[in-house]
Amino acid sequence: MSAEELALLRAELGSPPPESFGSLDDTQARTLTQALRRARERRASGLNEAVEDALTLVPALTREPLRRMLFR
Q: For the chain, what is the domain count?
């Protein structure tokens, strides 16, 4: 795996990858990095949707102040 692909994978993982990842070629490392990024984006999107759904239970006048308090 090239140093560039290793750096991208490390950034996506938030820590150094396991030693066994060193056996991946550039294409495999790139595919893994992209899959991790997509999974993180889906999880964040799902969380945002859940929060918005939960806020519908809060009275309309208090939603914006509550949103600001929770997500500063």
A: 1
